[in-house]
Amino acid sequence: MSGLSRGRGEKNKVSMGTFDNYNMERIIRSMPVVMRKFKRKRKVGCALGSGAARGFASIGVLKALKEMGIVPDLIAGTSMGALVGAFAATDNLETLEEVVFETDWGKIIPFFTDIVFPRNGLIDGKRVESFIKKYTRDMLVKETRVPFRAVATDIITGEEVVLSEGRLIEAVRASISIPGIFAPVHRDGRFLVDGALVNPVPVTVARDMGADIVIAVDVNRYLFEGRKQQQERERANSEVADRTKRGRIRLPGGKILQMERVVSSLGKRFGGVDQQIRGQVSRRKGRQRGPNIIEIMVTSGHIMGFHISRYMLDLYKPDVIIAPRVGHIKLLELHRAKESAVAGYEAAMEQREEIEAVVKRRRKAKTSSRA
Fold first, then answer.
1. 48-105: per-residue pLDDT in tens?
2. Residue 91: helix, strand or coil by DSSP?
3. Residue 73 annotated as catalytic
């Protein structure tokens, strides 16, 4: 009996001695194919871009991906993309959707705009932090269910700052801090503002996080297309208004008053009045309402972001680009959040075959290369 025991022990000792890297590789290769595929599943990352009110389109995109059975393994976000990404990474996307869709923005915007003496920004941002904290709790970035990163800009050095640690609220608040509107976030000796200044659609950040497949959401691609359409509508409305003013006025009882005749008659009675009135009308007609100071500051940043994103998306190509047509939505039109989200959902669903094919092909390619 003792001899048999020693024999087994010796055999076991030999087996353990030969259990080296070579034998380990043989064991791995002999695993069932299904198990190898599971271990080598490629990570899908979402890069959610900036765009203020247009950025709510990312809500619709993420919903569409979920319907396709594609749940991001990691999320990188810039500006509004960081806000949406933070809620998605903490399993609160439906909550955000409910809040922004049902909110009366006319009543709630004053709550967010805690105006301060404009030393470095018009809005302090503390109330925005309170809003985020209410739904995501005061958790750390590394505590999110889905790995998450927010992109900000160091306003002093101009460097891109990827926020992967610290408070989640602070990371999002820094990423959405539009220069001149929101006061910068002071963190680790840096003054951080909107990440759209350096990386509007953070494809590179998603890659660095380990994404094998990157789905990018670019809500500014059709920015100027929307502006042109809006200008054409405003011009058409203006022409209609001018014709109405130059034309007729319906008096009580149905009688029509011809304004040209009234002005001409006044000119005859009061010499020179006709020309003065016509001159004032002409000057007012030529005066077009321009953007206000807030629109100028915000739009300037997004025009820059538009051109930066064109360059970076061409240089660091994602596997899929989803570009909802939301260029007609102005940056601060938060009341159009649902319209923006619907556009994002529709854009993603229009590319469903492409998205599913890319994810399937890339995952298969990785499995084959390591088989």
1. 999 989 999 999 999 999 999 999 999 999 999 999 999 999 999 999 998 888 876 6
2. coil
3. no
Tokens of 359: 């994810």
Task: Let me know if 154 is a catalytic residue.
Answer: no
Q: What is the pLDDT of residues 339-371, one digit of tens each?
A: 999 999 999 999 999 999 999 887 666 555 554
> Could you tell me the two tokens for 183?
């006061």
What are the CA-CA distances from residue 89 to residues 153, 290, 308 (Å)? 22, 39, 26
| Residue of 79, 175, 309, 340 with catalytic role | 79
- What is the distance between the terminal CA atoms of the chain, rounded to a whole angstrom? 45
> 291's torsion region: left (phi>0), alpha (psi -120 to 50) or beta?
beta
Distance CA 130, CA 120 (A): 20
Q: Which two tokens stand for residue 362?
A: 């890339």
Q: Which amino acid is at 155?
A: I
Q: How far apart are alpha carbons 199 and 266 in whole angstroms?
A: 62
Two structure tokens written together for 247: 């034309």
The tokens for 255 are 């009688």
Residue 53 φ then ψ, to 5°:
-60, -30
Backbone angles phi, psi at 349, to 5 degrees: -65, -30
Residue of 58, 73, 177, 194 marked active site: 194
What is the model's pTM?
0.71
- Provide the β-strand partners of residue 45: 74, 214
From residue 160, alpha-carbon distances to 154, 203, 205, 273, 299 in Å are: 6, 13, 10, 62, 20
